[in-house]
Amino acid sequence: MEFELIEWLAQRVPAHPSLRLGIGDDTALLAAAGETLVTVDMLNDLVDFDLRRDDPRRIGRKSLAVNLSDIAAMAGRPTAAVIALALPRTGGLALARELYEGLLPLAEQFGVALAGGDTNSWDGPLAISVTLLGAVSPRGALTRSGARPGDRILATGEFGGSILGRHFDFEPRVIAATALHARYDLHAGIDVSDGLSLDLHRICLASQCGAVLDLANIPISQAAVELAKQDGKSALEHALSDGEDFELLLAVPPEEARRIVAEQAVGVKVTDIGEFVTEAGLWSRASDGVRSPLAPKGYQHALS
Ligand code: ADP
Ligand code: MG
Question: Cα–Cα distance between 138 and 107 in angstroms, integer?
C-alpha cells in the first residue's frame, strides 16, 4: 500500500519551481534563501475531526490550513510542506488519496510545494502531521512579543461557533497578514487557534503587558449565534472562548490601527476590539466603560 500511495503521489503532485528534488528520493531538496519559518501541527481522529462523519477531503484541507494559519501569524509566506500519515490499515490507501485531494488544491492556492512525507499504517486511528516551511517577509517575522501598552488590538474576521463547520473551511489569513505587514507598522501577532481570550492572553504574556477587550466591538459570527441558541451560552461567550477561529489578533500602534480600520484594504474585515495596557491581566470593558477581569478561556489539550 505504501509503495502504491507514493507512486500515485509522485504522479499527482505538481512540480514546483523551488523543489529541486521532490517525492521519490530520501529527502527533498529545496532552494531557499534567508531565514525560514518552521511549524508543525498534528491532527488526530476524534480530537480534530471525526472520520465517521467528516469528509476526508475537508480533513486533508484542514491539516494544511491550520499550518498556513501559523505562517500567517508570523506574516510569512508559506513555501513547502512535508506530511506524515498514520493510516488505519483498512481502507488506508483510498483514505490517503482523499486526504490529498482535499489538501492539494489549498497547497496550490498558496504556492506550497509538497516536498515529501512519511506513510505508516497501523491498527490505531488516523493521524496527520503537517510540517510547513515559510519565508520571512522583508520586514522580518511578526512575533507574539512586540505588543506595547497603548497599542490597539485588531482582529480579522469573526469569532465563535467554528465547530459548526468553519473549523474545516476557514480561509487561512496569509494574504491579509502579508499585506498588513507590508503596508502598516505591526507590533505583534498571533492566530486564534484555541480561543480569542486565551490567544490574546498569550500575546500579553509574551509581551509582558495586559489587554482590555471592548465587548461591544467583538465581531460575533452567525455560527456563534446559532450555537448559543442550542446550548444556552451567549454568542459573546462563544466568540471569546471557542477554538479554531483561525483569525488573526494584532497589536498595532493607535494611529496605524485607525488607518487599517478606515482603509479596509486587505480582503477581510479588520476590527478594533480593544487595547493593550501596562498592567498584566485581561479585562473586558462594557459599553458603559466599566472594566471587569476576564478569565482567558479556550481549548487546551488535557495532559497529566
Ligand atoms: P524513506 O524510507 O527513505 O524515508 P519513504 O519510502 O518513506 O522513504 O518515502 C519515499 C518517498 O515518498 C520520499 O520522497 C517521501 O518524502 C515520499 N513520501 C512518503 N510518504 C509520503 C506522504 N504521505 N506524502 C508525501 N510524500 C510522501
Ligand atoms: Mg531513505
Answer: 22
